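in:
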């Protein structure tokens, strides 16, 4: 790994009396940096979707070619989330995230100056690969700076960054079009977002923090004793310095049943999510006979309803469910099952829109809770690897089931076949939520046993 990406070692330590205020300030800076950084990744990802009408018109690309470009980015991103998140375990989170943003910006510059289809394919694949550099550092930063009891709320705040980022792409590109004119669609669609991404990368480097230890502070488990109990109860010792990212992945993730349970939760969540969002426009226009304007309203509600629900879910999982993430996920998936039935069977414009909004409101909750659960089933030094496995599984398998397999089912047996597929996915998701919950309870029991043993040892020594 390049020396630039390696985590730094603190030259000095923070004086004891300054540890608490410095820790509070640094952790808020760290959270803000990954929020803004991940938001920026969506500016140089979703801008491609906004440019597709111009690609079709100006470069005379067919719908099949545009679909191929989108699929290439999706597959490359899924693979990259697995590989890059694992590599992030051995890197400085802020440098890794900023480098990914800059590389995405460079690719977008290339898109702005390209005309050949196969060059577009290569650049889109590269963009998908570099996009995977944003997820791992985000979860690693949260795990490094925030204790388990706060990760629901903190993770919820970070999670809405992709909703915000995806939502501001259209105004950014639209403003660029208004100022530059449609004849400069390449500059407006690619180069302006690239310039903004570079600015955000600079902010990540300025605000971002590594681990508390790399900033001259004690490690999180030293400042908060309950975190030390939680880690040591599940995994003995720290990661040896000579362990590679692949060794960490094999030792702490590949052989960890809980990592597989939570990854399968995400597979079926993504299956339902992509099955809804990818086919919602066609289904509402062709089957429910919505107008384009009515379909756009339903689509908007599906996407933006996730923001308040995610924030509420983070608070509920921390406070009401005492850090247990999966019970709320199972409740949401059960409600989604019945809303899918309503969305499928109802003929009322209002009710179909309401059902779509409720599914959009709820589907991001188990996805977010699975991401928080991931940070709690492996030691801190393996978080990126666990996130990588989950990301790879969710995009390569989950998104494919919700898009390709759904389409096959619709072609062969009709729309009812697609909805049976989604409802089967909901049931499978609930099953893996339950298994993941049981695994979390087992780890919790081990933590309590470890805490009891630590309290007994001093007494026995006396």
């Amino acid at each position: 790994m390049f020396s630039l990406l390696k985590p730094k070692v603190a030259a000095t330590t923070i004086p004891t009396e300054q540890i608490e205020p410095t820790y509070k300030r640094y952790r808020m800076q760290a959270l803000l940096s990954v929020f803004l950084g991940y938001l920026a990744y969506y500016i140089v990802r979703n801008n491609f979707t906004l440019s597709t009408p111009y690609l079709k018109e100006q470069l005379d690309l067919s719908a099949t070619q545009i679909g191929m470009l989108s699929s290439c980015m999706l597959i490359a991103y899924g693979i990259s989330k697995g590989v890059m998140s694992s590599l992030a375990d051995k890197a400085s989170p802020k440098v890794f995230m900023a480098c990914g943003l800059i590389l995405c910006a460079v690719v977008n510059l290339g898109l702005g100056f390209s005309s050949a289809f196969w060059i577009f394919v290569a650049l889109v694949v590269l963009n998908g690969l570099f996009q995977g550099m944003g997820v791992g550092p985000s979860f690693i930063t949260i795990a490094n700076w925030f204790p388990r009891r706060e990760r629901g709320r903190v993770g919820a705040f970070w999670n809405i960054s992709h909703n915000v980022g995806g939502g501001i792409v259209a105004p950014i590109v639209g403003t660029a079009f208004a100022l530059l004119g449609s004849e400069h669609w390449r500059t407006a669609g690619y180069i302006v977002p690239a310039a903004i991404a570079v600015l955000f990368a600079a902010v990540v480097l300025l605000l971002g923090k590594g681990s508390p230890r790399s900033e001259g502070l004690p490690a999180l488990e030293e400042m908060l004793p309950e975190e030390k109990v939680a880690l040591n109860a599940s995994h003995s010792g720290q990661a040896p310095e000579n362990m590679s990212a692949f060794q960490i992945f094999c030792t702490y993730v590949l052989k960890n049943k809980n990592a597989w349970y939570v990854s399968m939760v995400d597979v079926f969540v993504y299956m339902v999510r992509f099955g809804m969002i990818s086919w919602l426009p066609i289904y509402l226009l062709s089957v429910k006979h919505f107008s384009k304007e009515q379909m756009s309203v339903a689509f908007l509600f599906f996407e933006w309803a996730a923001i308040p629900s995610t924030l509420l879910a983070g608070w509920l999982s921390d406070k009401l469910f005492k850090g247990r993430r999966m019970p709320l996920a199972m409740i949401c998936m059960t409600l989604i099952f019945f809303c899918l039935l309503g969305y499928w069977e109802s003929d009322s414009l209002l009710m179909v829109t309401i059902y779509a909004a409720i599914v959009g409101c709820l589907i991001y909750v188990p996805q977010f809770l699975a991401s928080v659960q991931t940070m709690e089933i492996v030691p801190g030094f393996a978080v990126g690897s666990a996130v990588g496995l989950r990301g790879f599984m969710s995009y390569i398998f989950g998104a494919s089931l919700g898009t390709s397999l759904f389409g096959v089912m619709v072609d062969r047996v009709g729309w009812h076949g697609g909805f049976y597929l989604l409802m089967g996915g909901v049931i499978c998701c609930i099953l893996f939520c339950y298994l993941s919950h049981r695994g979390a309870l087992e780890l919790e029991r081990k933590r309590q046993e470890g805490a009891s043993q630590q309290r007994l040892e001093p007494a026995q020594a006396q």
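note: The chain has two domains: 15-210, 251-443.
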